Amino acid sequence: MTERTGGSRPRGPKRPDASMSLLADLISGRDAIDPGYAEAAARRAPGAPARHLGLPVAVVLCLLGLLLTVAVVQTARERPAAKRERAALIENIRDRSTANEELERQAELLRSESARLQERQLDRSAAGRQARDELSRLAPRAAAAEMSGAGLLISVDDGPPPEGPSPDSPVSGHIYDHDLQTLVNGLWAAGAQGIAINGRRLTATTAIRAAGEAILVDYRPISPPYEISVVGDPGDIQVELADSEAGRHMRTLQSTFGIRYDLREESSVELPKAGAPPLRYAKEVRGG
Q: Which of 12, 119, 170, 225 is 20 to 30 A away from residue 90, measured at CA?
């Protein structure tokens, strides 16, 4: 007896190629694309309507263009004002420099007049003349008078710039204020009687400092090359300086970073006098 289940047809054996329908479609030339992919491709066809994404992009581009335009206009407006401010600042610096030079000339005239009156007053008595002679003897050492004699001329300058744009290149070939301080202190210790840097006479209280990249001597800027004039026994100074910490420091800068450090003996070195020291104490003396 044959079993029947409902009204369904009896199940027969499966075809051997039932799981190879996709390969069979490719061989037979029928379209093997999934219907969902086919529908998406149809929507992207040339005749199909495109998705409307251009409006947000256009708004963003308009905003960027507006910001760029505002920045350009603002920069163009500020440029003439910046130029005017720079020109006014330069003119102000020139005016102040001219005024300072005039004040320096007046101060020098007053110092000369004061020295003349002092000499006249001291010449009135034997004690005054003795004090005058003592002042004349000590004035060159105190930089209150010009000085001349045998000595040294020392040239110091920055080393060559580092090769290539490498950020690791050394930049210590630049001469700094503490380098000049070290050298000057070494010269004093070696027996120098008088020192000047780029024509500016140094005293026991002269400050050598830095302001940014500039070096100041007594608050006046100097620029390289630094010409150091020294009055004193050139042989003794060179021997003492070579064995000092200052000499070793300068030779290290020369060999490592290529700075220029030249010493030359001179039979005659001229040093100008320094400005008058500030008056710290005064007392009125009454009497004949």
A: 225
Name 110's bridge partners.
none
Give CA–CA dist 261/154, Å, rounded.
7
Residue 225 lies inside a defined structural domain of this protein? yes
pLDDT at position 83: 78
Please write the tens of the pLDDT for every residue from 88-117: 888 888 888 888 889 888 988 888 888 888
Query: With bands split at pLDDT 50, 70 and 90, how would you rate the model's confidence at 2?
Result: very low
Task: Report the pLDDT value the prediction gives residue 156, as an integer from 0 to 100.
Answer: 95
In a domain, 23, yes or no: no
Give the DSSP letter of residue 139.
T
- Number of structural domains found in the chain: 2
Q: Which domain holds residue 124?
A: 60-138
Name the nearest CA neighbour of 144 among 276, 282, 279.
276
Assess whether 112 and 180 both reside in one domain. no
The CA distance from 181 to 179, in Å, is 5
In a domain, 28, yes or no: no
Same structural domain for residues 122 and 198? no
What is the tens place of the pLDDT at every residue in 44-65?
555 545 555 566 777 788 888 8
Residue carrying the six token digits 């045998």: 150
In a domain, 191, yes or no: yes
Q: Is the pTM of this model over 0.70?
A: no
Helix/strand/coil percent split, the chain, to 5: 50, 15, 35
- How many CB atoms are closer than 10 A to CB 109? 10
Radius of gyration from C-alpha coordinates of the chain: 45
**Helix/strand/coil for 49:** coil
124 plus 80 within the same structural domain: yes
